[in-house]
Amino acid sequence: MNDVDRILTIPEAAREVPTGPVAPQSIWRWMALGLLAPNGRRVYLRRLKVGNRFCTTPRLMREFFEEAGSTEPVSSASSMHQIGAGAQPTSPAAHAGV
User: Fold this and answer.
1) Are 37 and 82 in contact (CB under 8 A)?
2) Element housing 56 (H / E)
3) pLDDT tens digits, one per residue of 39-89
4) Residue 53, SS3?
5) What is the C-alpha end-to-end distance of the chain, expressed in Å?
6) Cα separations (Å) of 7 from 2, 14, 26, 47, 52?
């Protein structure tokens, strides 16, 4: 198994952030709530469910940080397409219509 295929638990991912270690809560927050990129788009750290745990991979982390640092403008049409193409909801309240 190469580095790209390696599964990282949330605590492992927290230690592998390119700018230095962060709290595991930050990884969970990026998975669940996303991060607002400079271009105004909300990006999420993609996650995998392994048993009863959420995990990620080094490749997914690289993609997240590339997207989070993007300054390319996003048109409203492409933004809506990206949201519908697999973005995770921002909160449970969003599903309840609150």
Assistant:
1) no
2) strand 53-56
3) 999 999 999 999 999 999 999 999 999 999 987 776 544 443 444 444 454
4) strand
5) 44
6) 10, 13, 18, 10, 14
Total tally of structural domains belonging to the chain: 1
Residue type, 62: R
What is the dihedral sign for C-alpha 40, 74, 43, 66? negative
Amino acid occupying residue 20? G
Full domain range(s) for residue 41: 3-96
For 5, which DSSP code?
A: G
Q: What is the pairing mode between strands 42-43 and 48-50?
A: unpaired
For residue 89, how many C-alpha atoms fall within 13 Å in the half-sphere facing its CB? Answer: 8
